[in-house]
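Here is one chain, start to finish.
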Amino acid sequence: MIRNQESDGSWRGRWGICYIYGTWAALTALKAAGYPSDFTPVRKGIQFLKKIQRHDGGWGESCQSDIQQKFVPLHVSTPSQTAWAVDALSVCKETGDLLNRGVDYLLKKSFDMEERTYPTGAGLPGGFYIRYHSYEVIWPLLALSHYKKLQIQQ
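Its structure:
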């Protein structure tokens, strides 16, 4: 897994829309395996997520990432992608304004009933994408629970 880390610190996911999801999966796996947050690949993954945070506090990635095989930002943040980033940062014990802004985005945007149509998963890269309707609730709940656990530990 470490050898598959991209030069920008991300990992390419094979199921969710791509680099935010892949980086979340890799970081949470490395932490579960006992690697410390100052381990170079973990630190690089954290820096990647910090670098791509949007001005509204959330994260968003275009399906074009899947086609171009590099991170391509989306013009809006999405609850599932924001949740993956917040969860990874929480599991890595990152704190501060950046994480808090991500949590604020989740609390404001994840649980409203606004219609969302942007895909959340890759069916066939460049072919079709899937929108899992529960993702804007399930992943934020997981991320917020890990954030709350981090707050209690401090």
